Structures are given as structure tokens and as C-alpha cells.
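Example 609, ligand adenosine-5'-triphosphate.
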Amino acid sequence: MPDDLIELEEEEHTSQLTTPTFRRILGLVKPHWRWMAGFLVAITFTASLDAMFTYINKNMIDQGIAQKSIPILIKYASYYGGLQVVQAVTVFIFIYLVGILGERIQYDIRRALFNHLQDLSLSYYSQNAVGRLMARVTSDSGRISSLMTWGTLDVTWAIVSIITSVIFMMILNWKLALIVFAIIPILLAIAINFRKKILVEFRKSRRANSKITGEYNQSIQGVRVVKALGREDENLREFSVITDDMFKASYRAAWLSALFLPTVQIVTAFALGAIVWYGGLQSVTARFSVGDIQAFVSYLTFMIWPVQDLARVYADIQNSIASAERIFKLLDTIPEVQNLSDAIDAETIQGAIEFDHVHFYYEDRKPILTDFTLKVKPGETIALVGPTGGGKTTIVNLLCRFYEPKEGLIRINGRNYTDYTLQSIHSRVGIVLQTPHLFSGSIRENIRYGQLDASNNDVEAAAKIAGAHDFILTFEKGYDQNVGEGGNLLSVGQKQLISLARAVLSKPEIFIMDEATSSVDTLTEALIQRGMEALMAGRTSFVIAHRLSTIRRADRIVVIQDGQIAEMGTHAELLKRRGHYYRLYTQQFKFEKEQAYDVAVPDTASVIK
Ligand SMILES: Nc1ncnc2c1ncn2[C@@H]1O[C@H](COP(=O)(O)OP(=O)(O)OP(=O)(O)O)[C@@H](O)[C@H]1O
Ligand SMILES: [Mg+2]
């Protein structure tokens, strides 16, 4: 998706630090402020010790070497050594703290994100590419924590270096210091100017790079079409234009980067020249020593490198701000479905269920359910059938409150179901999804997923009821067999049986089964059927079936077409009516017979009477 990449890069380069974002970033550090404070102290120490070393050097030259005094040399050498040990300790401390602080901050962000992602409604996931979302989440949280740690380190070190250099220069010779400071604005201007230009070229080149990736993608994936239509030459020409753009931009970026350092060096050289010349002149009158000149030169370098490094640090910070903004945006997304502030526990949802003039759409207001009304008595089994895309799964999504009606309401026990907490509804519904999902782990763990306190016996009893026990035992490790990621080491039918066992174990008050369209063999189908019937006994149940043979015994069959009830009644009533259900049923019957005997069965219904 090259357009996405381009958009992302735009974001990275245009993000500016706003006060609210800054506050929130600081908020992330707040719980760990002690660690942060320790970290800052350690860096400040380490960086200022650098300046001390230069000062000791100066004294060593001026007093020890110039006066050829061994005791003085020993004195300063021991200061030097002592301070080195102190610095080694502070370096150890800040590297240790940087690691801990980074992990703590990342842990908080990841936890908050995970928690929030679990709260978000299904509608969020159908509107956002989850794969990309997850990739961003992991790398963005890493970037924020490195901003808080290594970013802080860079900035603090730079500031401390500049301040200490300034102080020591002023102590050594304030007049010369002032001359030297005059070059700082010049250097800053150069650095900022170059940074802007280099970033512009980098941006162009990265944009072109995204386009190239996209172009590769397209022509490799569509290689057959490309060949069939003889587009090779044309494609190559288009490709050359993009690579040309990239080449030019990268070329300019390289040229500017190469030019930057020498420019800084030349300006610095003037300052160094000034120091040596002025210092030399002064040393004649003994107001400026060799040590002073050497110290000044060192302090100047301490002051220059933060300016040189500015471009890199600035770009890093900008990227991290973009990351922070993306994460905050995600954390600020309000779940579409959430508990009302005065929501109550439903206690039981065994009572009547009523869809009262429900209207629903997913997005773009394209109506999926229109004026859907259905009353279900406690203990009743409702079968939902109808053409694909008719809205059957949508109805159960609404019933489970994964989504809520846009208009109209759903009542449980005679009360609007939004009065209840989500938890109290979800925990009392047992659902087997159209695309059953298992988690990587053993079969046992999967069955126990919603009922962590269930014993092994409970798990096996549930599997027996669901009809899954026998096939589970055929595995080498039985219940401890690993199901693979998403259960992909099992067949769809097996996954359904395990989901069914999971539902049995949760002893739901309402049971919902969205049958898989993919065909399972007749034996598995019979097993699923038996398990379902065991579960449905005495419970309000909703069964969506594509195999009509499985729902003949339902109390009521509801034919859903275009989000509305097209027909409703028992199997016998609906067949008698010779309407939609009759057509669906005879079609399927005809198809099954054709499959079974490999012959064309005449299109009449008389055969099934
Ligand atoms: N998450 C979603 N976002 C947007 N539209 C959706 C979403 N899920 C389903 N739809 C649309 O809603 C309509 C009804 O879908 P639904 O899944 O309820 O059909 P269904 O009757 O269960 O079909 P099937 O028999 O194939 O399972 C379809 O037109 C579908 O495109
Ligand atoms: Mg469906």
C-alpha cells in the first residue's frame, strides 16, 4: 500500500510538538519520576565530569608540566583517576536506568493499548486494518520509550555540555569566551538550514522509495496480466521515471549531507583560529597559558557537537512525536458499544427476547436490517435461514451486543438490553461462530477458555456432550494436543466441535450457533447436530443453518432476506406455504441428491413429501 506509506511518512515529517501531546508524554513518565530523576542526575554528572577532565588537564599542563613538578603531576593524575572512577559509576547508573525506564514506559503503553484494544467494539476492527495497526502499536511504543530515554539522554547531555563549557570558558577568559560564543548563532543557522534542506530531499527519496515498492508489488503480483498485455516496455518506462526521481533526490541529500560537516568545520576553524591567535598573543604577556589554549579548544568541541547533532536528534524527536500521536489517537478512540454509567447486572437473561423495530447499518448508512421485529419466548429455538448476506449473522451480532441497534431496541426480560452491563450479557451467552476461532495452545485450554476454574473432568464431560471427545482421543496427546495458531492444525469441523464444547462448558442461558458454510462430512455433521441439541434443550437458542436438515426440529424457522423477515413458521407450516423456505429447501434437497447420486434430479418438490 504505497499511498498508506506516503501518508505515514508525511505524518512523521510534519508532526509538531503541541502542548497537549507534550503533557501526555510527560504523563507517561510521571509514575516513574524517581527513576527519571535518578537518570537525569546521572547524565548531568557524567556530562559535567567531561568538563572537569579538561580543567584538570589544563592545570596539569600549566602547573605540573610547565613547572616540571612531580608532586603536582601526581596530585592531578590522582584527581583525574578518581574522577574517572566516579564517571564509570555514573555511566553504569545511567545506562542501567535507561534500560529500566525504557522497559517500564513500554510496559505501561503496551498494557494500556492491549486493554483498550480489547474494549474497542467490533466496528473498529472492521474499519481498521488490524495487521498494520498491530505493527504500528509495537514499533510506536518502542519509539516513545526511546524518546523518553535515549532522546532525553541526547538532549540533556547536549545542554549540560554547552552549559559547563560556557561556564569554564567564562572562568578561563571571559573576553575570549564572548568571541567564541558569537559563532554559536552562525552554527545554529547553518545547522537548521541544512537540516531543512536535507530532510526535504530525504522525504522525496523515501516517497519515491514507497512508490517503487508499490510498483514492484503491482508488477510482480500482476505479472501474468503484464505479460499477457505486453506492458513490459511501458512499465519499465514508468518505473524509470520514479527511480530517476529517487536517484536525484538521494543524490542531492548525499551532496548536502557531505557539505554540512565541512561547513561546520570551517566556521569552527575560524573560532579555533581566534582562540589560538588571541591566546597566543595573550600568552606573551603571560595572561593566557598553553593549558588555557588547550582547554578552550576542548570546550569549543564540547559545545559544537550538540549543534552538529541537532539534525539527527530533531528528526528522531519528530518521528517519536508522530508515534506518540498515533498511540494517543488509538487510546482516545471511544468504543462504540460500552456500558452506560448506571448499567446493572442482568442476573439472568433467561426471559423473553424481543427485537423491537430494529434498524441497523454497519457503515455508510447502507441499511442491513430494516424495521426488524421478533419476539422470542424463553426456551424457544429459533432457526434463522436465508440467502447469504441477508443479515443472519448481523442479527446475532446485535443480540450478543457486539453492536447495538441504530434505531429501535432489543429487550431482554422486558428491559432494554443497554440497561445491563456488557459483561453480564456476554457471560451468559454461549456462541459458536461461523468462523470458529481457537487460540494457540492445547485443546483443553481452548475448551476451558471462558471458564478457567473448570476441572479436567468438567472439560471432558463438556467435550462428550458436544460430541468432540472421540476425535480428541484420536490425537496422540489427546486433550493436550496443540491446536496451532488460530487452530490451524485442525479441520473446520473439529474447530466447531471444540467451540461447541467450550459453549457447553460455559453453561450459557442463551445459545447461539452460526453454522459454518464449509461442508463437514455427514458423520461430523451428525455429531454437531447431537451436541447442539443437547445444548439447546431448555435454553433459548438461535441457530443459523445453511444445512436445512439440521433445523427441521426448531420451534420456529425465520427466513431472513434483505434484512427483513420474509417468512416465519415451523418446518411443516413453511413447506406447506410453498414460499421462500420451500424453494430453499427443495433446491438444497435437489442439490444433495445430485451430489449423492451424481445425477440430475427433476426440479419438483414432490420427491420430498
Ligand atoms: N463488519 C461489517 N462491516 C460492514 N458491512 C458488513 C459487515 N458485516 C457484514 N456486513 C454486510 O452486512 C450484510 C449482512 O451480512 P451478514 O453477515 O449478516 O449476512 P449473513 O446472512 O450472515 O450471510 P451468510 O449466510 O453468508 O453468513 C452483508 O451485505 C455484508 O456485506
Ligand atoms: Mg453469516
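Summary: The first helix runs from residue 2 to 14.
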